[in-house]
Design brief:
Keywords: Coiled coil. By secondary structure, the chain is of the alpha+beta class. It contains 8 helices and 7 strands, in the order H-H-H-E-E-H-H-E-E-H-E-H-E-E-H.
Length: 231
């Protein structure tokens, strides 16, 4: 009788094979818990540590990141609530005034008190000479040389956040401009037709260029509506 030998091919054990096996058998370590205490994972600082300790550290790191994100979300929500409350307060104050001088006064006071500005400038075109004498410094002259330096901002028709040049700061805030490190420029009117309101801060990070301008856009619309028909 011929006995035929069966050759069994044994697959080579590679890292990839082990990884694939563990992925397809996620309960492996549940059935072999004793292995966990003996497995060691290289650590760049503390040398080799057990797999359990490594997993605990990974989970702690992930948990810390999630907690940080949650804190940021809660912080942003609180900030948004405060901003919306201040916007509501400003809107109520603007509704109660009927003339241009009082409107400009309310806007300026709100920028300082409600929105914690370190400097405020309201710059408006006044073709019909409606600006009160008390706000002569707010007058913008069409084609004025200094306005060319604001060309990109005016053409964008959107709120701008970032730093400004010394000449621009002096034009907007006078002597206060020397201490201003970041700015927000709000167009007044959909196409800057009325001018703009500038808010200056001594905090370099407050109005950084990557700042979300959604809230500032709503504030800009509110200011435009308040001045409509008064200038």
């Amino acid at each position: 009788m011929n006995i035929q030998e069966n050759k069994i091919e044994v697959e080579e054990i590679t890292d990839k094979n082990v990884i694939n096996y563990l992925r397809t058998n996620p309960d492996f370590f549940l059935d072999n818990t004793s292995l966990l205490a003996n497995l060691e994972v290289p650590h760049p600082v503390n040398g080799a540590i057990s797999l359990i300790e490594h997993q605990v550290r990974v989970l702690r790191a992930k948990n810390a990141k999630l907690n940080q994100k949650l804190k940021e979300m809660i912080g942003n929500a609180r900030i948004n609530d405060k901003l919306n409350e201040r916007m509501f307060h400003l809107a109520g104050a603007l509704i109660r005034v009927t003339n241009l001088e009082d409107t400009l006064m309310v806007i300026e006071e709100s920028m300082y008190d409600d929105f914690e500005a370190d400097a405020v400038a309201i710059k408006l075109y006044d073709p019909d000479m409606k600006l009160p004498i008390s706000h002569n410094q707010s007058l913008l002259i069409q084609n004025e040389a200094i306005l060319s330096s604001f060309g990109k901002v005016i053409k964008s028709r959107k709120p701008y956040c970032g730093s400004l040049k010394n000449l621009q700061l002096e034009f907007l805030f006078g002597k206060k401009g020397k201490k201003i490190l970041s700015n927000a420029l709000l167009p007044v009117g959909h196409k800057f037709e009325y001018g703009f309101v500038a808010i200056g801060s001594q905090d370099r990070k407050r109005f950084h260029q990557s700042k979300d301008t959604s809230f500032l856009a709503h504030l800009s619309e509110l200011l435009g509506s308040a001045l409509q028909g008064k200038i």
